[in-house]
Amino acid sequence: MGKPRKKHPEEDSIFANNPFIEGLFEWMDSPEGQQSIAVRDVLWDLLEGVQVDAKQRQLIWPGAKRTARKERLDLDQSVQRIQKMCPEFPGGEIEEFLLDWIDMGYDPENYSQAQLDELDKLTERWVADHRRKAKRQGGDPRPMARRKSSSPCLMIPNRCSRSPVRFMASVTSL
User: Fold this and answer.
1) Cα separation of the two ends of the chain
2) How many domains does the structure of the chain reveal?
3) What is the pLDDT of residues 81-110, one digit of tens each?
4) Distance between CA atoms of residues 75 and 83, nearest Å
5) Distance in angstroms (rounded) separating the CA atoms of residues 119 and 7
6) Angle at CA 148, nearest 5°, toward 22 and 57?
7) Which residues contact 91 (CB under 8 A, 6 or more apart)?
8) Contact (CB, 8 A) for 23 and 29
9) What's the rounded Cα separation, in Å, for the pair 28 and 166?
10) How far is Cα 19 from Cα 28, in angstroms, rounded to an integer?
11) DSSP H or E run through 51
12) pLDDT score, position 10
């Protein structure tokens, strides 16, 4: 005789009866969540080819095809650059995305482990200093956490391969 079968194997899943996961799915289905996902999808595409100079605290934007010149911009200048291209995006959401990308999303190729460790130290310090400065100046150091936007970003088509399913998979693998 074999083992008795479980009637509902999904009840053993981390997704079953998990308030965090349920809240995340609710947020993803909300207008605010859909807007944030759409904005982040476009920003992922815009950052393709962008490099980070963590010592100088600059983003190095690839040049236009006609000019092979690269553009070195600090964080605030980079937010302004993106807002020129996507004026409907809230500046705070762009800034928060860039901070997250600098801290966790930038993954240069061909770096040794020592170079990656140094990059991590520099970017963590950069992001922490930026948030501390924003807090001192009375700004919101985590703009997305407390502010809603009325931006019409929901109309933006998904221009990259990231999807809510992949986003969810990356969140649950943490």
Assistant:
1) 39
2) 1
3) 999 999 988 899 999 999 999 999 898 989
4) 12
5) 50
6) 100
7) 79, 83
8) no
9) 12
10) 14
11) strand 51-53
12) 56
- The SS3 of residue 171 is helix
Amino acid of residue 1: M
Q: What integer pLDDT is reported at residue 161 of this predicted model?
A: 32
And the tokens for 17? 């009866």
- The predicted pLDDT at position 32 comes to 84
Its domain, for residue 59, covers 31-102+113-163
Structure-block tokens of residue 126: 């950069």
Measuring CA to CA, how many Å separate 39 from each of 1, 87, 137? 55, 11, 26
Distance between CA atoms of residues 10 and 93, nearest Å: 35
pLDDT over 50 at 14, yes or no = yes
Residue 107 parent element (H or E): none
